[in-house]
Amino acid sequence: MASNARSKNKVDRVGFLTMHIRQAKSSFMSLWLRPLGNILTLAVIAMALSLPASVYLVGKNIAKVAEEVASPSQVSAYIQEDIAEARIMVLKDRVESWENVESVQYISSQQGLSDLSEYSGFEQAISLLSDYSLPAVLVIQPSEQNDASIRDIAIAIRDEQGITDVRLDEDWLARLDAMKNLATTVVVTLATLMLGAVFLIVGNTLRFTILAHKEEIQVMKLIGATDSFILRPYLYSGMWFGLIGAVSAWFLTAIITILLNGAVEKLSMLYDSQFHLIGLNWDESLLLLMLGVFLGFIAAKLSARKHLKDIEPV
Amino acid sequence: MIRFQQVSKAYRGGRQALQKVDFHLRQGEMAFLGGHSGAGKSTLLKLICAMERPSDGTIQFNGHDITKISNNDIPLLRRNIGIVFQDHRLLMDRTVFDNVALPMRIESATENDIKRRVSAALDKIGLLDKAKCLPSQLSGGEQQRVGIARAVVNRPTLVLADEPTGNLDPELSNRTMMLLEEFNRAGVSILVATHDVGLVGSRPQYRRFELNQGFLSEVEGYGQ
Questions:
Q1: Residue A218 and residue A314 in contact, taking contact as beta carbons nearer than 8 Å
Q2: Residue A15 pLDDT
Q3: Which ipTM score applies to this complex?
Q4: Cα separation of A25 and A27, whole Å?
Q5: What percentage of chain A reaches a pLDDT higher than 90?
Q6: Of A107, A155, A257, B17, which one's alpha carbon is 20 to 30 angstroms from that of A189?
Q7: Which domains are assigned to chain A?
Q8: Positions in chain B whose pLDDT score sits under 70
Q9: Chain A: residues touching B (Cβ < 8 Å)
Q10: Per-domain residue ranges for chain B?
């Protein structure tokens, strides 16, 4: 009896989750009420997101190339031509016993020649060289990767007998590092600009949507809708924009990678390398999607809340 | 139900819309609010649903002081009030069903509950067979009745009607008013702002207030 009376006056409420699912669905559906405009918006978002993603991939691939080329810092000590192999081995053992040395690799002049001949195009040049035209090398791997210990080794080895020259590859590494830094800065700047663009696009689109629904919002406010209730569909729209835009951006990036991979493989084949372009991995794809959703949500929240406040029933 | 105590409202620029208005509408009562346009009828209704705030005095709704109601509580107040507009204010891009369902969706009612209540409300106004129509496919009188259904669907304690018959011919006006009377018999308090003297004159059983240049008076001989 009591419950009967209650059910007469009280509304049966749905759960929090059900309500959100319902609103997310209806926001998704309402995107297709204005298909052309929304598809254009989504295309802009997708392109704006795929640009930083592509630039990021360029950076990632360059870093991979650099990693293959650059071994960690090491010291190369060139040995006089006329020194007997036995003495070199003694020297090698002694250097190896130094505290700050990890390992020493001996590359005889013969070995050096055969290494070189593995690179394509050099065979003919090598046949012109005499047998001993390449000096033997001790490649010293420092145990600690810092400039001071590398320099200590270089000074110590220079004092050894039979060493003609000492080379450090740290200069080249420093240059590579600087280049990597430059690339990172470019990627970050471009990404920030483009993400800013996504933010503005979503915000502006929702501003138009809200202004178009001004009357509806006034009526909703008059019949007792809370601001958060009115806001919610717009937040979901923003999130859908971000998500669909990010998914499209992912596909765009994948297509670009596949298209470029053919050209890159042809190029690397000419250099006799097995290099392949790498695309976005799972983590990065997920990050892209989350970034899209997050940007859409924040843009929607800021824009919609501001404009909803301005609309009061009259 | 609603109690106005010495309520004044001055708009910016100094125009005095209401001056020391006192009245009390009891639970389940129906009353008319008359007066020329510009006499303050709309202002009085806006004060009740917190679209405007009084410059002075206190307003009580169901024993709660709503004079200084916080913005967060305004939606909760409005859920207890059904509003019927002169221009009905239906959402033109939604079906009649969805329009009437709106107040229930706002309260996040279950679809079952919505279907049951909306169908009942549409049945009551005689438009159940037009549930799937868009408002633009209905006549003016029918649109107004849909507006009334939307105002009563979540069983508010009070219905405010602002010139509900303003755009209708006498025959339709009479039917609309009978619909409101029917809801009043079901226990809903109703306050109707109207300048249609004929309509009010033919219903002496309800109380009648008159606004004149911001001053409110109750007309003798009504509401006995």
A1: yes
A2: 81
A3: 0.88
A4: 5
A5: 22
A6: A257
A7: 21-69+175-310 (no CATH), 75-168 (3.30.70.3040)
A8: 224
A9: 8-9, 11-14, 19, 215-216, 218-227, 229, 312-314
A10: 1-80+197-224
